Amino acid sequence: MYLSRFLSIHALWVTVSSVMQPYPLVWGHYDVCKTQIYTEEGKVWDYMACQPESTDMTKYLKVKLDPPDITCGDPPESFCAMGNPYMCNNECDASTPELAHPPELMFDFEGRHPSTFWQSATWKEYPKPLQVNITLSWSKTIELTDNIVITFESGRPDQMILEKSLDYGRTWQPYQYYATDCLDAFHMDPKSVKDLSQHTVLEIICTEEYSTGYTTNSKIIHFEIKDRFAFFAGPRLRNMASLYGQLDTTKKLRDFFTVTDLRIRLLRPAVGEIFVDELHLARYFYAISDIKVRGRCKCNLHATVCVYDNSKLTCECEHNTTGPDCGKCKKNYQGRPWSPGSYLPIPKGTANTCIPSISSIGTNVCDNELLHCQNGGTCHNNVRCLCPAAYTGILCEKLRCEEAGSCGSDSSQGAPPQGSLALLLLLLLLTALLGTASPLLF
């Protein structure tokens, strides 16, 4: 009997909680821009910082190769297998789908065997350098949230630079240098991310960790985003509040993880030894089977949704903001200067909502954003609130009986708010369940 009563109480609590709880049960991901709460004045909007979910950003990019005719297969040519550089009976032919290796194969699903991959022409013009620029463009500012991972089907290059742009490819800055010999290639001492710290996390380094020529099972190159996050959030990224706090207060750190474009500069293919074998130049080429870039649209903490329409990413802005990155206030909402949202205070942050301009307050009576009709009223053409029968006022904020002076204890017009009603229901049912029995033993 007691178990049955306990289950009844639990079911009741779940039901009432769903009525009374205006917020999600878990916070800290900034996945909600606003929610309705109940106050003495009725239902109002509570605003908070928000951002889109992290996702695979390769679905939205455009790729450009320079030189544009660097892809193998036109004209057809033979190349040597990676595992056996003297077996040179493999063929690349752009006119035959089974033998073609176009750029889009760097971003397709890699569940098939053998792997699909883009491939460059071979180094047949040696000693002229075999160099390729692969530019990834989003036409949108994005924030990186995970490691950039490049998987080579050939040997990893002896020399490579990963670069970033914050202005849609007009200017470029190095992200990281890669080489078998950093001092010889770039006049830099070799380092790894593990050599960095909170104070040097923005340092541009050259690493020899990923440039090992034809070594078996060594196909992957990383740009370590998460290792850099870990300097602030801990090795397992459990203290994200600390990271968000740093991103909020340090613009250079925030900009470091922000890009509009990435550029992979392949400067020297995997040679595997000191000298180039001029008798077997078909051994030397670049081939990439996969590129992974995870991130989110930058919406300045003013949106949770980023839509892809007509080959373009755009934030669906909240908080009375507008623009591709929610980077300005909407018309008639310039009552104070625009500001990005803030991750602080944890866990909901600060929305920094744009507020109505003084000149627009008289004409915009309601807007379902900042000027929300209360007590169940609905906004009609932003001109007036249509109030329920029991309420009046510009925003339905007054009981009609108050104006008539007829609000008494028996009046049905002053109904309690939904939260109070739910609490009263809970108390009544608890009394019914518990009042007729001896104390429960759990």
UniProtKB/TrEMBL annotation:
InterPro entries: EGF, Laminin/Netrin_ECM, Laminin_N, LE_dom, LMN_ATRN_NET-like_EGF. The chain crosses the membrane at residues 421-441. The keyword Signal applies. Residues 1-28 form the signal peptide. PANTHER family: NETRIN-G1, NETRIN/LAMININ-RELATED. GO terms for biological process: animal organ morphogenesis; axonogenesis; tissue development. SUPFAM superfamilies: EGF/Laminin (SSF57196). This is Netrin G1. Keywords: Disulfide bond, EGF-like domain, Glycoprotein, Laminin EGF-like domain, Membrane, Repeat, Signal, Transmembrane, Transmembrane helix. SMART domains: EGF, EGF_Lam, LamNT. The keyword Membrane applies.
